[in-house]
Specification:
Chain lengths: 177, 487
Amino acid sequence: MDKKIYGLLAEFDTPTQLVEAANKIREAGYKKTDAFSPFPIHEIDEALGIKRSILPFMVLGGGIAGLLTGIGLQVFVHVIDYPIIVGGRPHFSLPSFIPSAFELTILFASFAAVFGMILLNGLPQPYHPVFNVPRFALATREKFFLLIERKDPKFDYDETRNFMQSLNAQEVFDVEE
Amino acid sequence: MQNVEDAKALERRLRPPMVEGEHTFGSVSDQIGDLALKKKTPYHWFIGFGIAFLVAQSLLFTVVYLVTTGVGIWGNNQPIGWAFDIINFVWWIGIGHAGTLISAILLLLNQKWRTSINRFAEAMTLFAVACAGLFPLLHTGRPWLAYWLFPYPNTMGMWPQFRSPLMWDVFAVSTYATVSALFWYVGLIPDLATLRDRAKNKYFKLIYGLLAMGWRGSARHWHRYEIAYLLLAGLSTPLVLSVHSIVSLDFSVAQLPGWHATIFPPYFVAGAVFAGFAMVLILCIPLRRLYKMQDFITHTHLVYMAKVMLATGLIVVYGYAMEAFFGWYSANEYEYFMIKNRIWNGPYWWFYWLLILCNGMSIQLLWFRRFRESEFWLFVISIVVSVGMWLERFVIIVTSLHRDFLPSSWAMYSPTMFDWSMFLGTIGFFFTLIYLFVRFLPIISIFEVRTLLPDAQVAHGGHEHADDTFVGGVNESPGRKRDKLET
């Protein structure tokens, strides 16, 4: 092999074929795998053995941070830094602090959800080896792809290629580095 | 097999398919994506965009004149210190709420019909919030100092007043705008990748590519993506309810009869959704015809929206009834005076009855299938409702203010030309943005529509013609295991 190979990519026509192939790949012991599809397929998580993301905890953390910021800010402003009586309410008038604190809770949690998702996914990532396969442009349209990386301990070019071919793939492509 | 046929027919009747016609993943991508990518822009786009852009110029003109002169060019006076600026603010922000309702609440309720209308309903939300924000911003009088509203350490040694509903508004509306934009963008990422991979034009490819951030549809990415999307929906749901509740607190925290009512938050939220669905229908009905999207925005979608409009409209009518009842039952002479003044012996009584006609009477037609299923009537009723919701805010704000506690300060309100030119201008601005959106971005969420196709289902328990024994494939989300039907 002259060209540097990143991995092997198999193309499928339907989500069912993809999930079946993914199951077989996992059973064969491949670990460095990924699937690509034009829409989310829930079965694939189990088939590829994808662990549940920590994202929900980040969002919870974001929400708690937002709440504490909201309460803390208002307490600082109205109790510590510039105590002034407005509308006969006490300096620490929690009920009127709730709306702003609530909005900040939502805001920070949403930031955590969106930016957490983007960062955990390693985006923005303009270049990825799979884009070198011309057919891969169809992954955002109608085709389904399965990838085994060369880094996988079980990876052996000929053996893996034959194995992928045996999974009813339309075609198996070399992914160049 | 007879049972299977019957069950399929029943399923079709109970849950009509959300995508009509014969479609594949590819044809869905093409039909929706090509609107943005096709070289030839339809002539009606230029006409519509031209008109909207022209009308938007009156906003530009008014804002320039307003900033250089002052808010005195508006008809606001004492005691009607809040008039068109807050009427239009509440009207626009209410319209925006349907977008979030469709994208978030209906997602949580697992209503599949949201899928083909959520994208442009969310766009509508963003643009409506942009229009809404202009009014309080310019009403501050010196909009270049609007950043004083945000808490930041400054040399004046001053802080905003967090006990004021107006401050809550700042937080609510800016959070709402930010979260709506994020939600919209997250929903767009996979579709932007589709457009990137399909675009022929170098510049389009580059721009869509940059915006898609290198999305490649990886299973791990989808996994986190779905979690993020669902959590955002869960966060947006209380957010949208809180935003209009807080907007209503601008009024109900005040002591003024006609504003000081506990019913305001739920009544405002229902009104917002009502107005928003009317606007979605106003946009949807021409859009699906002009762009031949009837396969995705089906007749069923329109009927469902009409039903939501009827339901929320009835809640609003209940609100009107309760307002009048409270006025009488409170045994408070100021409350009673206010409601009498509003309904029959004040100078603005006919506004009230116009409002009841638009919001209360017109929607009763939706009980009848003939009106509910006619695009023409839905369009007309939606416009009437939009006018009605504007009148509602006029009635709440102007009639409550113009007869306050002190008879010596009673006055009448009439808007000036610049009130009108600014309001019209925001309508032009809104439609300008909608036209640009329709031209450059996918108006329907492509990847979500793909999941509605029967092919998107993963067949369980062996792949030998499993599809024959499944019913109602189109409505189910992929990944949900469905029971096999006994045959």
